[in-house]
Amino acid sequence: MAKRSFLIPGVDKRLLIKDSIKTMPDVTRRRFIAGGASLGALTLLTGCDVVDSSSADALLAKISKFNDAVQDFIFNPDALAPTFPESAITKPFPFNAYYDLDDAPEVDGEAWKLEVRGLVDNKKSWTLPELTKLPQFTQITRHICVEGWSAIGSWTGTPLRDFLKLVGADTRAKYVWFQCADKDGYNSPLDMRTALHPQTQMTFKYANEILPRAYGFPMKIRVPTKLGFKNPKYVVSMEVTNEYKGGYWEDQGYNSFSGS
Amino acid sequence: MSSLTVTDEHISAKPAKVIQPVWVRVMHWTNAFAMILMILSGWQIYNASPLFNFSFPREYTLGGWLGGGLLWHFAAMWLLMVNGLAYLIAGFATGRFAKKLLPITPTGVLHDVRAALTFKLSHDDLSVYNYVQRTLYAGIIVVGVLIVLSGLSMWKPVQLHWLVTLFGDYPTARYVHFFCMAAICAFLVIHVLLALLVPKSLRAMIIGR
């Protein structure tokens, strides 16, 4: 039986492999490239592919969609993520991205504008001074990465739901879709109920200091009810939309709701 | 060894009785399948951010990369949870747990552990579990419940924050999840070894008699 690589349909295989192997030790890297991202152990145990890879992919994608629906169903818009005292903050708070810190976007705060598009009354773009004039709150919450590690940090900014109200967003729409300045263009959809969650924040400060480049200057969306990859950094635009526009990691197979 | 392997004479002499009812057999093998998927995909997820100074060999992981491992893990969890819940309900409702696993007395356990270690523990009557079996089977059910609860609290640490509190905090739930997996793997090794030493017990789990 010919080995077929296990990947999500529509994903650029080479890009994905390039991303993944960066995190692997050398020996693993070589083996990974030689063997392809197969079903691994199951293939090994049985000596052949027990399941046809592409139909397994399709089934797994379907179950992931089902899991989106389940998570949406059990999502309680009033359930708050636990908050912590300042003494609990993880120091140093880890930098995390699919690129090195040296490759992180350098956004010029003077020239930067937040573009607001889609189902909103006021489509004006916002400068940084305009945004930071809005009332801000600080919350210390746990950031949980899809990889399993977690870290507690302090983020300060404006509740996204206040901003959505301010720009006259149609809050019956399904998603707020964020686009970022990351290399290769990061983007991520956020379901409207999570966007309206009281702790979902347009973040301008980390640990009471202007958001450093490592953590997403000039603006990050901090969503303590989602995994880290659904907390976009270096945000350049938001679009209120009914259309599912996909996301950088979501398109590669991470569960789209990924709520905590 | 010879005292552990039992010939088929006992069974063929009298009409065979059903040792493992069909619901136990179906749920046992469903659980075995789901558990292996969960363990292999779980190792893939573990490797993305190891808790200890080691990773699992790639050959023994499922999914190819973290995203694939997560897809398998969050798919197989339904099979594991639905089957496990049905097993718990059936086990209590039919009285099988009470009949097969109880009582577990310290003296009984000590006696049978000593017998097992000196290869004197007999399996003449497959329908009665000795104290080593009772302890292992009851224990693994508790571990199974714990691994699901710690897993759920890692999956939904905000919605199920009360569950996280039960374990302490999110990172602790991760460790609990890991050690439950380790316990299940250890059980799996012993369980499979013993089943191979007493082949008719394996046969009973396949054809019932």
Automatic annotation (TrEMBL), chain A:
For this protein, the record's InterPro entries field holds: OxRdtase_Mopterin-bd_dom, OxRdtase_Mopterin-bd_sf, TAT_signal
Oxidoreductase molybdopterin-binding domain boundaries: 104-249
Q: Where does the UniProt annotation place the signal sequence? A: none
* PROSITE patterns membership: TAT
Q: Which domain of life is it from?
A: Bacteria
List, alphabetically, the Gene3D superfamilies matched. Oxidoreductase, molybdopterin-binding domain
Q: Which CDD domains match?
A: bact_SO_family_Moco
Entry protein name: Molybdopterin-dependent oxidoreductase
UniProtKB/TrEMBL annotation, chain B:
Q: Does Cell membrane appear among the keywords?
A: yes
Q: Cellular location of this protein?
A: Cell membrane
| Broad class of where this protein is predominantly found | membrane
One cellular-component annotation, GO: plasma membrane
Give the record's GO biological process terms.
respiratory electron transport chain
Mind telling me which InterPro entries this protein's record contains?
Cyt_b561_bac/Ni-Hgenase (IPR011577), Di-haem_cyt_TM (IPR016174), Hydrogenase_cytochrome (IPR051542), Ni-dep_Hydgase_cyt-B (IPR000516)
- Entry's transmembrane regions: 26-46, 66-90, 136-155, 175-199
Q: Which UniProt keywords apply?
A: Cell membrane, Electron transport, Heme, Iron, Membrane, Metal-binding, Transmembrane, Transmembrane helix, Transport
Q: List the Gene Ontology MF annotations in alphabetical order.
A: electron transfer activity; heme binding; iron ion binding
Gene3D superfamilies (UniProt xref): Transmembrane di-heme cytochromes, Chain C
Which intervals hold domain Cytochrome b561 bacterial/Ni-hydrogenase?
Answer: 21-206
Pfam families referenced in this protein's UniProt entry, alphabetically: Ni_hydr_CYTB (PF01292)
Q: What topology does the record note for this protein and the membrane? A: Multi-pass membrane protein
Q: Which family does it belong to?
A: Belongs to the HupC/HyaC/HydC family.
This protein's name: Cytochrome b/b6 domain-containing protein
